[in-house]
Amino acid sequence: MDQSIIADLLAHPRVSETRQHIHHSVPKLDHLLRVARYSYMLAPWMGADRRTAVRAAVLHDLDSRLGTLTTHGAIAARVAAEMGEPEAVSEAIVSHMYPFGPRPTTREGWVLVVADKMASLSDLSAFVGGLFTGRSLRIRNELRASDPFYRSRAARRQRRRLIARLWRSRGREALTP
Ligand SMILES: [Fe+2]
Ligand SMILES: [Fe+2]
Q1: Residue ranges of the alpha helices (H) in 63-134?
Q2: Ligand 2 center–CA 3 separation, angstroms
Q3: In angstroms, what is the span from residue 97 Cα to ligand 1's centroid?
């Protein structure tokens, strides 16, 4: 893949920080780059603009945790626009979860739909392949520690458990004569 198309994006903190984020149990950056490579390959075959499709691929899941299966495309599309990407890039990103969420309206949008599905399978096979050596679980544990979103979710869960425990023990005390 010609990296010069995306060199500026790879250096952008919003993209480089995804090295520490967990996505399909692998680093999110690995997923983004897989989608970028598949998009690079598919774009000419599907008559799409390669540069638009590949740039959209690199950004397509930014802030995905703030949305749902069907809405996170719109969130990432907005992030891309805020980063100064042209309309065509956001338009490709918004529908990448099709058939969950909106149907693509451009060729680049279709490239992203196919590339994202292919990359998700590759993410899974990379994870399963690494289970035999223990690499996958080690990386997943490292990501759970480094991902701020995951850390805050774990902290929220722990707080809820503590409150439930306190509630139960207080309840018992109150019932004891
Ligand atoms: Fe996604
Ligand atoms: Fe994705």
Answers
A1: 72-82, 87-94, 107-131
A2: 19
A3: 6
Specify whether the CB–CB gap between 150 and 22 falls below 8 A.
Answer: yes
CA–CA separation, 83 and 14 (whole Å): 9
CA of 83 relative to ligand 2 center, distance in Å = 19
pTM, entire model: 0.84
Q: How far is the CA of 64 from the centre of ligand 1 (A)?
A: 7
Structural tokens at position 135: 């690499």
CATH class of 3-146: mainly alpha
What digits encode the pLDDT tens for the residues 44-82? 999 999 999 999 999 999 999 888 989 999 999 999 999
93 token code pair: 């990103």
CA distances from 122 to 10, 27, 43, 72 (A): 21, 13, 19, 21
**Residue from 82, 108, 83 nearest 95 by CA:** 108
* Residue 31 confidence (pLDDT): 96
